């Protein structure tokens, strides 16, 4: 136990604790946001809502990646498989009019198939996970780009006569956007 004379300074003790380092970083970001507030945009709840929505995808991916890393593995293809399943679901639901009851399980199975192929290559051929998932990353990203035509999937759909039609957003996207745990959030 340290006596009062030999105790390390408060700042050193705070910096030694990971939770306090995170809190210090959060306070610093908050202060910087207050100073450089983009004409008041930093003070609007919608700004923080949108930032949390964007970060939530990475938080969900990080939960799965934590299990992979704890088990001693690595998976480089996670983001690319996410992109592939997102493009696939968007095309199925917006452009082809599929029901989400068919599209969601199909896309989940498709993502699982990608992971199964990378895992099968790793286990079956004794190839390093880094190489197998790197190959899956390149494949999934390339397939996503090919399926989308290298463009953002939008509500503008090409018709049979060569024209374009603006289709409404399927209800599943509003459901995902507005409801969390059965609660409708109006920001």
Distance from first to last alpha carbon: 51 Å
- Total strand segments: 4
* Weakly predicted, low-confidence segments: none
Q: Element order, helices and strands?
A: HHHHHHEEHEE
Estimate the strand proportion. Answer: 5-15%
In terms of quaternary structure, what is this?
single chain
The structure class reads mainly alpha
Spatial ordering of strands, largest sheet: 1-2
pLDDT averaged over residues: 88
Radius of gyration: 23 Å
Main sheet, how many strands, which sense, barrel?
2 strands, antiparallel
* Silhouette: flat
Helix content: 55-70%
Provide a count of the helices. 7
Write the layout of secondary structure elements.
Layout (H helix, E strand, L loop, with lengths): L9 H7 L1 H18 L9 H26 L7 H18 L4 H26 L3 H20 L7 E3 L5 E3 L4 H8 E2 L2 E2 L3
Helix pairs in contact: 4-5, 4-6, 5-6
